[in-house]
Amino acid sequence: MTLDDVDTCLGTLEGIRARRSDARRAWYVDGLLVARADAAGTVLVRLGGRDREQLVAAHPDTFGVPPRWEAHDKLQADLSGDADAIQGALRLAWERRRSARARG
After folding, report:
1. Which of 11, 23, 56, 72 is the most buried if burial means most Cβ atoms within 10 Å?
2. 76 within a domain of the structure (yes/no)
3. End-to-end CA distance of the chain, in Å?
């Protein structure tokens, strides 16, 4: 996967807006971060709790939580990993952010 593939995937979801954040590509729904480019070849996905734990356990070669993100609801996806799993994580992050906005 590439960042263009991430953009294509997220671009199909209602309310997603692409922006630049600190000169990095980022995607938001209703002003809430869904994902953004992170270190080279990776994307940061806004997911925490059980969702994050399950993805890391199920796809350890694709997902991880670098020490700097352990205290945050964020997950790092290696774009050379399982594309279907990454797309699923992006959709899940979108769903969670939309739900958070609806509650809040």
Report:
1. 56
2. yes
3. 33
The type of residue at 33 is L
Residue 43: Cβ-neighbour burial (10 angstroms; 0-12, 13-18, 19+): buried
CATH number of the domain within which 63 lies: 3.90.1150.30
Using the structure block, give the residue that is written with the tokens 């954040």.
21
**Residue 65 is assigned to a structural domain of this protein:** yes
User: Mean pLDDT throughout 77-83?
Assistant: 98
Two structure tokens written together for 44: 């940061």
Beta-carbon neighbour count of residue 41 at 10 Å?
Answer: 14
What's this model's pTM, rounded to 2 decimal places?
Answer: 0.92
For residue 103, tell me if it sits in a domain.
no
